[in-house]
Amino acid sequence: MARSPVLNVMVQAVMKAGRAMRRDFGEVEQLQVSAKGPGDFVTAADRKAEETLFAELSRVRPGYGFVMEERGEVAGTDPDHRWIVDPLDGTTNFLHGIPMFAISVGLERAGQLVAGVVFNPITDELYTAERGGGAYLNDRRLRVAARRDLVDAVIACGVPHLGRPAHDLFREELGRIQGRVSGIRRFGAASLDLAYVASGRLDGFWERDLKSWDLAAGLLLVREAGGFVTDAAGGDAMLARGSVVCGNEAIHGQLLKLVKG
Ligand code: IPD
Ligand code: CA
Ligand code: CA
Ligand code: CA
């Protein structure tokens, strides 16, 4: 597997932030938390990882802009390139000592996602994708699962937490989907849900009310692993609408129908 220079830059930055996050996992001082809203926390680890990613990525590609969960948007001098960064996806898991979280970095060029990295520093699983170049888990090329019928499928979802809208909508979707699939999972890190679809561990995933940084890298992983991805209305405005439905072509089609109702 040959990685482009820019993907190497992303991998180096993400691994550096990930090594520190792994050391800090479970350490009391990293658990200093503040709440951004009901059910929405930020820890010292989120901020530290964001600092590292910002410093590393801007050192190697000084002109690129950023959209980052904790800092927000940082304009660059290069209007064509933008990093989309979630420094710690799965903060609630991190806080509870559950080893299911990741660092997610996507790169947009002229409005198109061209590279993505999702890294779980606890399992040492590094997911990478480049537009047209396939998706990988460490050195292994990925392909979405082959199951074609929802009755055989394991599907992940997101459950709106306290302070989020769309609780009723979620209950309706779950009501339609739950009796028709072989299993439903809620892992709590959207970037890993997408990476798991790309690697064939999960057959599909749907969620609403996500942000561009939850989705960017993972969307590219699923596409490059041969999967189908749309927003919850069946369009391709996933980043703008913050919703996603994905799987292989057959599972995506069946799941989307049930999500739409
Ligand atoms: C959260 C996770 C979670 C999803 C939430 C996100 P964070 O991201 O991706 O799975 O359900 O909507 O906010 O805040 O842990 O980076
Ligand atoms: Ca957050
Ligand atoms: Ca996130
Ligand atoms: Ca986050």
Automatic annotation (TrEMBL):
Cofactor(s), names only, from the UniProt record: Mg(2+)
Pfam families: Inositol_P
Catalytic class of the enzyme: hydrolase
Residues where Mg(2+) binds: 69, 86, 88-89, 214
GO biological process: inositol metabolic process; phosphatidylinositol phosphate biosynthetic process; signal transduction
EC numbers for this chain: 3.1.3.25
Keyword Magnesium on entry: yes
Keyword terms: Hydrolase, Magnesium, Metal-binding
A molecular function (GO) term: inositol monophosphate 1-phosphatase activity
Catalysed reactions, as listed in the record: a myo-inositol phosphate + H2O = myo-inositol + phosphate
Family: Belongs to the inositol monophosphatase superfamily.
This protein's name: Inositol-1-monophosphatase
Biological source species: Methylopila turkensis
Source organism phylogeny: Bacteria, Pseudomonadati, Pseudomonadota, Alphaproteobacteria, Hyphomicrobiales
